[in-house]
Structures are given as C-alpha cells and as structure tokens.
Amino acid sequence: QKEKAKVMFKQAEEGLLQYVKKGRRRQISAYYDLAGLHACQGNIDQAWHYLRKFDEQGKWLFGIPYLIQVDPLFDNLRDDPEFKQMLQRVFTEKKQVQARLRQLETEGRW
Asked: For a Cys staple, 51 with which of 35, 40, 45, 110, CB 3.0–4.6 Å?
C-alpha cells in the first residue's frame, strides 16, 4: 500500500507541476495543492516552498483562508508560528478589503 501511495503522490505532484510550468490558470491553486501534498507527507521545507509561492501570488480568494485552517493536508504546518502569522496577515487584509467595500457602499460608489 505504501508503494502505491508513493506512486499516486508522485503522479499528483507531476500533474500539478505541469500546470505550474505551463502557466495555466490553475497554476495558483496548484501551489496550494503542492504545499498540501508535501505537508501531509512530512516534507515541510517543500511544503513551505509551495505555500510561499501561493502566498506570493496574493490569491487568497474565496474560502481558502478558512479552508487551510481545517484542511487535514496542512496539519503538519498548523502549529508553525509562520503559518499562524501568514493566516493572521491574510485575515487582516481581508478585513481591510471588506471595510473598504463597506465604505464604498456607504458612499454610493459600489
């Protein structure tokens, strides 16, 4: 079973890396997925490499900040101070955007 899991992990990784190399639209979420794959395998340095790439893209859209808090793939990173700081920054940025949108609505400009 372990060998089969390793093969499946490698196939998933190779597929995601193809998205990254080809610059497809899914590239950003591929970084998230690669980070999760590596984190769950205990490859913490690789997980951080891809999570930082994801973060650099600034695409914490939709529910990803909420998802990553409970996504079991990231259990190995969740207690890391850098992980906590990253999420704190992302949620602070989300709150600032929400406040700005409320202001625009109040002013009738949105």
From this structure: 35
